[in-house]
Amino acid sequence: SVPWEFPKVCPSCGEHLQRSQGDANTYCVNRHCPARIETGISHFASRNALDIEGLGERTVQLLVEERLVEDAGDLFALTKQQLLEVLVSDSSNETLVTNLLTAIDQARECPLSNLLIGLGVEHLGPSTAELLARRFGNIEAISLAEITDIAAIDGIGPVIAKSVKDFFGDDHHRAVVEKLRNNGVRLDLVQGEVNAPQILVGRSVVVTGSLEGWFVTREEAKQAIIARGGKSPGSVSKSTYALVVGTEAGETKLNTASDLGVPILGEAELRDLLETGQVF
């Protein structure tokens, strides 16, 4: 039998494949490669990014084949007539197109962190994208930030900081962002607080139980902690700074906090924590 050899060229476009030093993955670096374009747009529309319902892989493939889209920025310039001609064999059935256009329009108001994920910044995950969005507030500020400023954010190290800087230093990526801006996509939508005082940097605050009736919901409490530079993991450990306890809290977290001497906070103590960064 003939030994299997790893492909040297992209099966989609025929360009040579490349693998960076220290990287286990091999990539096609041709930005005009149909498969690469399709993958990028499908990722942009995925649930963890802009969550554009109805924009599945087959639909993306058709749009790329018809040269209606070359990148994610083109999605927001699509017209009803274009989509009808490509996606609907029976012109009387417009529901598919109408629903897709509605989903695309709703995606114009997506959170900045989701947009950063959708753009495909290497090494940037949901939590670090959220940190980046909260620290800088809009994509313009992120694109202009220095590596040292990005790396200074607790939870974002030099590798991610360099990746972000390299991404926005690329002409192609800047052109995609400009398309998004010109097509009405919000580039500054941050949920919760922006530029909150960084008084919880390096501290982990766990929130458990229901905060119904409090001045914040459970999710808002977590967001407020993160906005102040802290972390809000799901479990208590020896590194936990405090445990916020609402009603119907889990006994495991309470017992662990008690055994480790972790301060247990109620509503008033949480308010003080968010204002001062301290447990009294």
Automatic annotation (TrEMBL):
One Gene Ontology biological process: DNA replication
PROSITE patterns: BRCT (PS50172)
Keyword annotations of the record: DNA damage, DNA repair, Metal-binding, Zinc
Metal-binding keyword on record: yes
One GO molecular-function entry: DNA ligase (NAD+) activity
Segments crossing the lipid bilayer: none
Chain ranges of the BRCT domain: 195-280
InterPro entries according to UniProt: BRCT_dom (IPR001357), BRCT_dom_sf (IPR036420), DisA/LigA_HHH (IPR041663), Hlx-hairpin-Hlx_DNA-bd_motif (IPR003583), RuvA_2-like (IPR010994), Znf_DNAligase_C4 (IPR004149)
UniProt-listed Pfam families: BRCT, DNA_ligase_ZBD, HHH_2
UniProt keyword annotation of Transcription present: no
Name of the molecule in the record: BRCT domain-containing protein
Record organism: marine metagenome
